[in-house]
Amino acid sequence: MQFRAKLVSWAEIEKWCRNIGKQVINSGFIPEAIIGLSRGGLVPARMLSDRLWIKDLYAVKTEHWGFTATKDGKAVLKRQGDPNINGKRVLVLDDITDTGESMKLAFDYIKSLSPAEIRTSTMLHITRSSFKPDFYSEEINEEKWAWFIFPWNVYEDLDNLIGRSMVVPSSASDIENILKDDYNISFADVDLPMLLNDLVDSGRLKLEKGKYSK
């Protein structure tokens, strides 16, 4: 097995965002704006803005390339217009702090925009991360680490995993077994054949005589 991967459910996303919302409220910190890190923090940020009744919602884009980050192992900030947060209390949100590089990069950039106060949050915090957020729903130690496949990147991640592991054209059931063996993924609540056919429609996979190939 190369590494463990876990398909994250929407029920888990809702639970984690609810936990963060409660922590923020109980802390006494009252955000005036929320910034989601693009792409992983966009959906959680929208969910938190709804739970916390915050209308000012912005995005800051940080980039990693696939499973190995950028070519030199560093996160990259993509400027797309500065959020209007001067003098405001800001909550920054991402899906996970794994290496911590994306959050640290975003934090330093957001700080340069002169907010009154910044607090950071992630649904999941990996203990090895170099950056520890103020709020998080679950802490994951090294022994329980897995590559978390969130609903908003399920196609990208499965396409990458299939490309790594599928050697010959394979049926849907063969691919399910391959991914279980290599990454310990459970597809109990996921329609894998539907996902595979969507990958075919988007040109990421080929289908011939019931067999999928890259």
Give structural attributes.
214 residues; alpha/beta; Rossmann fold; Arc Repressor Mutant, subunit A; 2 domains; 6-stranded mixed β-sheet; two-stranded parallel sheet; elongated
Notes on the protein architecture:
The structure is a single chain. The chain has 214 residues and is of the alpha/beta class. The protein has two domains: 136 residues, Rossmann fold (3-Layer(aba) Sandwich); 64 residues, Arc Repressor Mutant, subunit A (Orthogonal Bundle). It has six helices and ten strands, in the order βαβαβββαβββαααββ. The strands form three sheets. It has a six-stranded mixed beta sheet with strand order 4-3-2-5-6-7, sandwiched between helices. A two-stranded parallel sheet has the order 1-8. Strands 9-10 form a two-stranded antiparallel ribbon. The longest helix has 18 residues. It starts with a strand and ends with a strand.
Report strand order across the widest sheet. 4-3-2-5-6-7
Label the CATH architecture of the largest domain.
Answer: 3-Layer(aba) Sandwich
Helical fraction equals 25-40%
Order of helices and strands: EHEHEEEHEEEHHHEE
Average pLDDT:
90
Query: Any idea how many domains?
Result: 2
Top CATH class of the largest domain: Alpha Beta
Q: Tell me the strand percentage band.
A: 15-25%
Q: What do we call the CATH topology of the largest domain?
A: Rossmann fold
| Structural class by SSE content | alpha/beta
Low-confidence stretches: 67-72
Keywords: Glycosyltransferase, Transferase
GO molecular function, one term: glycosyltransferase activity
Organism: Oxyplasma meridianum
Domain Phosphoribosyltransferase: 10-154
